[in-house]
Write a structure and sequence with these properties.
The complex is a heterodimer. Chain A is an all-beta fold. Chain A is built from no helices and 11 strands. Chain A is 0% helix and 48% strand. By secondary structure, chain B is mainly β. In chain B, strands 2, 4, 5, 9, 10 and 11 form a 6-stranded mixed sheet that branches. In chain B, strand 7 and strand 8 form a beta hairpin. Chain B starts with a strand and ends with a strand. The chains are: A mainly beta, B mainly beta. Chains A and B meet through strand 4, strand 5, strand 9 and strand 10 of A and strand 4, strand 5, strand 9 and strand 10 of B.
Chain lengths: 116, 112
């Protein structure tokens, strides 16, 4: 019973390049959340998605960041034209659909982005 | 706006002592409160989830209490071991279950 799978675990990009982070939720989970942990800062909510729908993106920076959760395949967090301030650990979490949801979130191991 | 505070920021104890970690939140209208453990360079492991109707939750050596009226939760770890060394985070949902507001964490070191 695999947990939340994130890849890549580590990603190095130069300024101006694009970063794509992928997240496969736990089996049977239909809700995906992305969080960011900046160095020496706490975890901050970015976006909440269900299949083919963005439910809440109130924590996403207005520019360069986008997220999707297609009908098939993993959820993707995309950062265009990365800058040094994007260097952080990006965590994905998932939860079951309503009706089986106790409110507990299950997190992946994270993707650590370094921008040179 | 919900704010979550964890005190102390860091804690060092000798092996065998009990650990007491505190979490406070400003808005008592919470659905639940979740405690996590984070090891360096790793993800978050869910330890305990306390629903708003519960006063405490236990799992092995871990016990978490919740006092909504005073806006506090306490995580107790009995008979600490070096393997308990990690950062412990508490979090409460804001306007949806998965939109968590995290505390800054308590970094715990248990010395042999």
């Amino acid at each position: 019973n695999a947990g939340v799978m994130q890849n890549p675990r580590h990603l190095v990009r130069r300024r101006g390049q694009e970063a794509r982070l992928r997240c496969s939720p736990m089996k049977g989970h239909s809700h995906v959340y992305w969080y960011r942990q900046l160095p020496e800062e706490g975890l901050k909510f970015m976006v909440y998605l269900q299949k083919e729908n963005i439910i809440d993106e109130s924590g996403m920076p207005k520019e360069r960041f986008s997220a999707e959760f297609p009908k098939e395949g993993p959820s993707i967090l995309r950062i265009q034209q990365v800058v040094r301030g994007d260097s952080a650990a990006y965590f994905c979490a998932s939860s079951p659909p309503a009706g089986r949801n106790t409110g507990e979130l299950f997190f992946g191991e994270g993707s650590r982005l370094t921008v040179l | 706006k919900q704010e979550v505070t964890q005190i102390p920021a860091a804690l060092s104890v000798p092996e065998g002592e009990n650990l007491v970690l505190n979490c406070s939140f400003t808005d008592s209208a919470i659905y639940n409160l979740q405690w996590f453990r984070q090891d360096p360079g790793k993800g978050l492991t869910s330890l305990l989830l306390i629903q708003s109707s519960q006063r405490e939750q236990t799992s092995g050596r871990l016990n978490a209490s919740l006092d909504k009226s005073s806006g506090r939760s306490t995580l107790y770890i009995a008979a600490s071991q070096p393997g308990d060394s990690a950062t412990y985070l508490c979090a409460v949902p804001t306007d949806s279950w998965g939109k968590l507001q995290f505390g800054a964490g308590t970094q715990v070191v248990v010395t042999p």
